[in-house]
Amino acid sequence: MSPTTARVTSVDTYDIRFPTSRELDGSDAMNPDPDYSAAYVVLRTDAADAPEGHGFAFTIGRGNDVQVAAIEALRGQVLGRSVDALCADPASLYRDLTGDSQLRWLGPEKGVAHMAVGAVVNAVWDLAARRARKPLWRLLADAEPEWLVEQADFRYLTDVLTPGDALDLLRRGRKGADERRARLLERGYPAYTTSPGWLGYDDAKLTRLARRAVADGFTQIKLKVGADLDDDIRRCRTARAAVGPDIRLALDANQRWDVPEAIRWTTALAAFDPYWIEEPTSPDDILGHAAIRRAVAPVKVATGEHAQNRVVVKQLLQAGAIDVLQLDAARVGGVNENLAILLLAARFGVPVCPHAGGVGLCELVQHLAMFDYLAVSGTTDDRVIEYVDHLHEHFLDPVVVRDGHYTAPAAPGFSAALRPESIARYTYPGGTFWAADLAERTRKEQAV
């Protein structure tokens, strides 16, 4: 079949869940027992050169089936689409999905419905990069600025960022790109690690993992805080003793506090020289973040992983509410909306330090950060990508971190494809792991 007639032939979804709560991996003050999960989608085509595109939305267990159902609701708008047309203009599908008036009512452009759009749109970008035989970061960095502007979503943004503004940013961003690419390929992109800091870990495990992080070349670690102040003081003291005074120590409250409480708590932890306080209050409270930022300086305020769309990001920047923007690859409407978010951050001069962890978020966000370095911001100063060291083995193209830096991916695509054996084992509830787990729990209940 010729490429010009290739079509999307199926949209397959999977409810993938990993039992991370059993070791308290990912535990924090707001989410004490997460089972990291992916509402996973595969676009299958009859194209000979690249027959599949992979994407997902990240959740933490119960409700992943709801997210899968939201992705399935988009199937009718994707089946039968021309592969050539999709890959030449992913924004065409993005506009159709975000513009569906009946489905849009469920958002608009927020929550489960919008995350479903992001999963499908990211799968299209994975397909496009595979067909171009490039990793996504390279596909974006090689693209003409005019085409990138066509792909970004500027609706509701033009009071602060017009397509003309974006074009100027992208044209300036091309200067020195070849030298930066050489540095990226040689050195990689700076990372920080959250792996030592999960709230459920005891002090011995925190100390061991923090020291290992420093030995592995990380210059920043992050601790979860917010459940108990005395406990946080002890854990911060333990972490600072383990890493010394020269390693950055970031703190993450995962939306735990009201505004006055966030100010009091952060002030109490300031003695340990925290670099930033992350998600100190509701992710929707623009003015609350601005008040916290004024009160806790010089501690920086970071947020963005739960910013449900580019409009919330715009207002965080307009209000001077954050020092660090933590975009998420799977929370908003995929690459198209994240292009707009990266350009917004550049317009306001705010560094982007993407949220990662979870299932596959490290795999995705590395591409966006590397594109930002090569073609938008042109710098890695005060920029780091989050890294956690679990679940990468389930991906066909897992992240590689060396000496505290992400290695630039070389395989074509968005690094989103799960291993078939992991899909077979961890699909819920019928995968081999979950079926055996249910049988064991049933046996124990019957024995009691």
Automatic annotation (TrEMBL):
One of its GO terms (molecular function) is L-fuconate dehydratase activity. Keywords: Lyase, Magnesium, Metal-binding. It catalyses: L-fuconate = 2-dehydro-3-deoxy-L-fuconate + H2O. It holds the Pfam family MR_MLE_N. Residues 203-299 form the Mandelate racemase/muconate lactonizing enzyme C-terminal domain. It is an enzyme of class 4 (lyase). Its EC number is 4.2.1.68. One of its GO terms (biological process) is carbohydrate catabolic process. This is L-fuconate dehydratase. It comes from Streptomyces cyaneogriseus subsp. noncyanogenus.
